[in-house]
Amino acid sequence: MIKFNNVSKTYPNGVQALVDVNLEIEQGEFVAIIGLSGAGKSTLIRTVNKMIDITSGQLVVNDIDVSELEGKKLRKFRRKIGMVFQSFNLVNRTTVIKNVLASRVADMSLFKSILGLYSRQDKIKALEALDKVGILEKAYIRADQLSGGQQQRVALARTLAQDPEIILADEPVASLDPVMAAVVMEDFQRINEEFNITIIINIHHVDLALKYAQRIIGIQAGKIVYDGSVANIDNDTLKKIYGRELSEDELMEKKNVKLD
Amino acid sequence: MLNLIKKIFLPDTFVLSNGKSIKEKFNWGPYITIVVVILVIISAQITNVDINVWIKNGKNFVQMIDDMFPPNFDFFSVMFKPMVATIMMSLLGTLIAAVLALPVSFYLSSNPEFKLNKYLLTSNRTLLGLLRTLPVLVYAKLIALIFGSGAFSGMIAIAIFTFPICVKMMYEQIETVDMGPYEAMISTGASRARSIICSVFPQVKGYYYSTVLYNFEMNVRSAAILGYVGAGGIGVLINTQLTWRAYSNTGLMLIVLVLTVIIIESTSRYLRRKLV
Ligand SMILES: Nc1ncnc2c1ncn2[C@@H]1O[C@H](COP(=O)(O)OP(=O)(O)O)[C@@H](O)[C@H]1O
Ligand SMILES: [Mg+2]
Questions:
Q1: CATH number for the A2-80+164-250 domain, one of 3.40.50.300, 3.40.630.30, 3.20.20.70, 2.40.440.10?
Q2: Is the terminal CB of chain B with fewer CB neighbours within 10 Å at N or C?
Q3: Which residues line ligand 1 (CB under 6 A)?
Q4: Closest ligand to Cα A38
């Protein structure tokens, strides 16, 4: 479980990216975080694995107080939290499998990581992760020869090879076309259901959030302005989160969201 | 005339048909040209450039070249070992420098993601910059005084000279890489060193090997003269043969030296093109 108690984040330049955030996310939930650009979505998910330090309040993940983590303990904690990025963040010049194996390096000796001596077990684990996202046959191809959608699935496989309990995804489909975006969102959905992994996803496209997630968190200027199930969202709520009508750019399919 | 000078040295102002006016950007070009011309004249005076001397001594030079041919091929058995030593001391010196330079260059890269102390970074870079100011000949002389003359001193001198160059070339390259993969590695719980090895090094690997080759190329060329200050290699032999006026021996050494440098350079250039 992830628990935010009055969490705030003020950057050194004075920007208040999170203001008094209170949240509780249970193991196995699929949560979409929506809000305008600059609302604090990236900051919010990066506090969960302490890529960003909070400045006040308390953040507890699986009974661990995140603020107190440092050094080895912090690194061990991060092993259980996967992360997926908008720009995929693969090493382009190397093969797909090496990119996936990179998530096993944290547990290896420095000597073995310098020489790239991955164990047979690790290799099998990486191949299985690639199989889970349906691109096993691409294992020995260079990462930069894949399409954007395929690259994001490699990134997802890299995260899966880490055996995570939580996956944090920062705008994972923002640079994909609608077809690939749907494929990747379905991967997230399947992974969430099959392995009971908590998924927290920042997403710019509201229609995708409504289609694939179970729960929506709306954030505006660092404050949570909506937190509830997808079913309870209506146009007024969206207006409250965005401070205006949705623009076309916030919909992947470029048509109005159908709200029942 | 005055108008032309004005046009060259001062920015023009354009007035558009609707009355708006806009001033041209200031152009340093002409000023810099004048300074360079002045510097060239001054340096010619300092170095006593005198065309008459050139003509007179040119004749001696032509005579010396003439004496070098035909080269004495029997001398090859004598010069072979020092020649190999020259190449070996360049190779080993470059390799030692390159291996040490790699970790240090990461430590001196200013990528904010590495979270290094800014002041420490600047002071360490300055220290390294100081190392870079001395020419290899000075290091060779100093090292030869400490370790005695010989190829070992030459190797150490080359290593000390090459190290800061490699570090600078590498950290400038590291500062241009995509740091996204590094963030991804850190998020998996990997340490900074492991994250760098898996996400940053692969991006600069080709450039690194190319840097090593380039420095080796440079060092083979400069290594030939290190013998003059007692740092071993072919330079010792060239020095003695020249003082004995054994020009046909010197001729052979120069030919072998030129061929060696050409072979190493073209191989290295071929490999470097493949690497980057
Ligand atoms: N490293 C930083 N330093 C200072 N301000 C930042 C930093 N990162 C983000 N911000 C600011 O914090 C606010 C929230 O940013 P972010 O979490 O990236 O929003 P979002 O992901 O919703 O677009 C923005 O105003 C942004 O400019
Ligand atoms: Mg963001």
A1: 3.40.50.300
A2: N
A3: A 11, 13, 15, 17, 35, 37-43
A4: 1
